[in-house]
Design goal:
The chain is mostly helical and 492 residues long. The chain has 21 helices and 2 strands.
Length: 492
């Protein structure tokens, strides 16, 4: 299915000959310069675009008030920031707001989202709470929004470098030689300046970490495919499990990468099965502690997150099935009361049944709604709706507009890059790069349409676009060489 033909006896993903040290050094320095630019853009966005204090409205007087940085947060940012601070102060993975709204009561267990982002941010909160750092920061100890934002900047900067390395690997498999370096540098440049990537690094959300883990899994896929061993299969599976702990739907990578790639190897079926089973077991072992923890503390069976119920309820109701809001998500009239009895798992079960009942009563409308969700995620249907919709997730209107301007050329070049790889019979490479796109599309089908969801697919688009850009430049150079008049021989 995804094997590469015509690539020599060892196959297209066989170990590559090492590049000369001079070329590798030049690539490293150029990539470092691109990463520095990307870091500067991200720091500037947080320092200027996210500068506080935020403006808040006093509901009793209507006056504009200055508020703490935590008031800047919207949507899921509130959970990630508060939960990391809550865990850092020794309260565990419980509802971070319970101590404030229900003092004296035992905190309820919380699994609003998978734990990776909170686990990464918790040490930041813990360190920021300690002297002398707490004194240097000069902010309330329960806040740490600024520190969390800059933590995401660091991971987003690392992501730029990883995109460059993955792009180089793709380029070397595609054409070999120095062209791989060029593809990597172009891909890293796109990742460094793309608003659709750096905007995530200014938010206290899961997108940056998800994209980074996914790129690491793609990069490791090439490593495994080039020289498959059980240890490398286990490493690939572990990265896929880690991706599931960032965003639930990316657990599909355990199948799309951890099973499909071993099955595509030109090895005996026993070896293929061994690699696939090893990858699945490794992914399961990474996820198992969190799943076991949730099964022990919630009333209803809960595996990775309790957020599925309210997500389904908010996406399957009349405003999201009919009219201009088709394919989106909302609270309020769609979810009903938010003050339901029971823990999060019981509330999620109530919302889930509410959503399934609505779906069952409107089956004929589902295909249209699903198409709208997918098209919205890929900015192919009413893209300007996201300008206002994204404001509810702390994304400025100007950033969303700028992201749309950058997105469409990147998408067109990415489609062209996919065609180039297909024509060059690099179907295995294309499969690896397209797995995040498949997961993103699947996630939109079962939930709702949102451009934020494609964050983990943006690196693949950048690399495919880089392939097309390099191919175009090479085609122009060839045409100029072919059109050049022959050089006359000098007289004897």
């Amino acid at each position: 299915m995804v094997g590469d033909q015509g690539a020599g006896a060892q196959g297209a993903l066989a170990p590559l000959r090492p590049r000369p040290s001079g070329a590798s050094s030049r690539f490293a320095w150029l990539l470092l310069a691109i990463v520095a630019v990307g870091f500067g853009i991200r720091v500037s966005y947080v320092a200027i675009g996210k500068a506080g204090p935020c403006r808040a409205i006093d509901p009793s007087t209507g006056k504009v008030l200055a508020s703490s940085p935590s008031k800047c947060l919207q949507g899921d940012e509130l959970f990630y920031n508060s939960e990391a601070n809550f865990v850092a102060t020794g309260h565990g993975f419980n509802e971070p707001y319970s101590a404030f709204f229900h003092p004296g009561q035992k905190p309820q267990p919380a699994a609003d989202h998978p734990p990776l982002t909170v686990l990464v941010l918790t040490p930041v909160s813990w360190i920021a709470n300690r002297a002398p750092i707490s004194g240097w920061l000069g902010e309330p100890q329960h806040d740490h929004v600024r520190e969390h934002r800059y933590t995401m900047v660091v991971f987003g900067t690392v992501l730029v470098a990883m995109v460059g390395l993955l792009g180089r690997r793709v380029g070397r498999v595609w054409r070999g030689g120095g062209r791989g370096d060029i593809v990597g540098l172009v891909a890293a440049s796109i990742a460094a300046i793309s608003p659709n990537m750096w905007v995530n690094d200014g938010l206290v959300m899961s997108e940056t970490l998800t994209a980074l883990v996914v790129v690491l899994a793609l990069l490791y896929s090439f490593r495994f495919w080039a020289r498959p061993t059980l240890w490398r299969a286990a490493g690939l599976g572990a990265l896929c499990g880690l991706a599931a702990l960032a965003r639930v739907e990316f657990g599909l990578l355990a199948v799309l990468l951890g099973v499909v790639i071993p099955c595509a190897l030109r090895r005996p079926w026993f070896d293929r099965a061994s690699f696939a089973i090893t990858a699945l077991v490794a992914a399961g072992l990474v996820v198992a502690p969190w799943v076991g923890f949730n099964l022990a503390r919630f009333e209803q069976p809960t595996f990775i997150s309790t957020n599925d119920g309210i997500t389904l309820a908010g996406a399957n109701c009349e405003p999201m099935y009919y009219g201009p809001g088709i394919g989106l998500w909302t609270l309020g009239s769609c979810t009903g009361s938010l003050n339901l009895p029971g823990d999060q798992s019981q509330k999620s079960s109530h919302y889930r049944h509410r959503a399934f009942d609505y779906i069952d009563a409107h089956k004929s409308r589902v295909p249209i709604v699903v198409a709208a969700r997918v098209a919205r995620t890929w900015s192919l249907f009413r893209p300007l709706d996201m300008v206002s919709f994204n404001q509810g997730e702390d994304r400025e209107r100007w950033v969303t507009r700028l992201g749309l301007v950058a997105y469409y050329p990147t998408l067109l070049f990415a489609i062209a890059g996919a065609a180039v790889l297909w024509r060059r019979r690099r179907k295995g490479v294309l499969w690896v790069l397209c797995t995040p796109l498949i997961v993103v599309t699947f996630g939109a089908v079962i939930t709702y349409g949102q451009t934020r969801f494609r964050a983990a697919a943006e690196p693949s688009l950048a690399i495919l676009a880089a392939v097309a850009a390099v191919a175009v430049v090479e085609a122009i150079r060839r045409s100029r060489t072919d059109d050049a008049p022959p050089v006359a021989a000098e007289p004897a």
